[in-house]
Amino acid sequence: MCQVNYEVPIPHCYVWMTQGVPNRAKLFKNYVVDYLKAYEPHLELVKIEGMKAVCRKKNY
């Protein structure tokens, strides 16, 4: 069975919110993961491509 990926746009404010932070990549990823938990709770992050979160459905 093939797993379907979904692309979720990442809010642009996360770029300037993480600007100048020493661990920017980690903080940005944490923001994206928390965003998905709040607004797309049925999805889990696979990877980040540009300003899109590539996700798949969670296995419950």
Structure description:
The structure is a single chain. The chain is of the alpha+beta class and 60 residues long. It has one domain (6-57). It is 35% helix and 28% strand. It is built from 2 helices and 3 strands; from the N terminus they run E-H-H-E-E. A 3-stranded antiparallel beta sheet has the order 1-3-2, with helices on one face. The longest helix has 16 residues, at 24-39. The protein is elongated, with a radius of gyration of 12 Å. The mean pLDDT is 94.
Offer a concise description of the structure.
This protein is α+β, with helices and mostly antiparallel strands. It has helices at 13-17, 24-39, and strands spanning 6-9, 43-49, 52-57. It has a three-stranded antiparallel β-sheet, with helices on one face.
The N- to C-terminal Cα distance equals 17 Å
Q: Judging from the principal axes of the Cα atoms, what is the shape?
A: elongated
Average pLDDT reading: 94
* Helix amount: 25-40%
The secondary-structure element order is: EHHEE
Which strand order does the major sheet show? 1-3-2
Helix- and strand-based class?
alpha+beta
Number of strands: 3
Q: DSSP helix count? A: 2
Alpha carbon gyration radius: 12 Å
Please indicate the count of domains.
1
Strand fraction equals 25-35%
Largest sheet: 3 strands, antiparallel
